[in-house]
Design brief:
The protein is α+β, with helices and mostly antiparallel strands. The protein is built from 4 helices and 7 strands. A 7-stranded mixed beta sheet has the order 1-2-3-4-5-7-6.
Length: 170
């Protein structure tokens, strides 16, 4: 049985391995995302310290991870070829990775559902995410989780990402 919980310091090596596996899978699929060493264990360490890192554990093994945050994501300030619908505070998911042996079981979708659950509990009306234009699997996960394409954002390094958003109803 899989259990979702806050990530802890001792999870960092396992999450870093998930990132390495995701990096390899993206490269093999010809997706130029995460090929510069980001994300890594230090990113997870910051997520854990902020209380934003979440893992899904199955049989005492970390099989999925994501950073679930609220507030303001600076790269979302400007959106091209579209617009955000939500106003005010929003939730956002970053750095999602799933163990290759656990793919296809809806674990990434569970992370989005947790983000939506937390957003509703906080009275937040929107959740957002973004991904590389060639990362079709993550685009499918976001669509299945109810996030719709909203436009293109630009990261601090100048690369573009497709942006998605879901408005939450009571």
């Amino acid at each position: 049985m899989a259990a979702l919980r806050l990530a802890r310091e001792e999870d960092i090596p396992a999450v870093a391995r998930l990132f390495d596996q995701a990096r390899q899978a993206l490269a093999a699929a010809g997706v130029d995302q995460w090929q510069d060493g980001y994300p890594n264990g230090e990113d997870v360490r910051r997520d854990v310290a902020a209380g934003d890192g979440y893992v899904i554990v199955e049989n005492h093994r970390v099989v999925a991870y994501a950073c679930l945050s609220f507030g303001h994501e600076p790269t979302y300030d400007v959106i091209a070829n579209g617009s955000w619908l939500g106003r005010g505070e929003y939730g956002f998911l970053h750095r999602a990775a799933v163990d290759p042996n656990a793919k296809g079981r809806g674990l990434a979708g569970e992370l989005f559902e947790e983000l939506k659950r937390q957003a509703r509990a906080r009275g937040v009306q929107a959740v957002r995410g973004d991904t590389h234009r060639d990362n079709q699997p993550m685009q499918r996960v976001m669509a299945k989780a109810g996030l719709a394409y909203r436009g293109v954002i630009t990261l601090t390094d100048g690369s573009e990402r497709l942006a998605f958003e879901a408005l939450l109803t009571e």
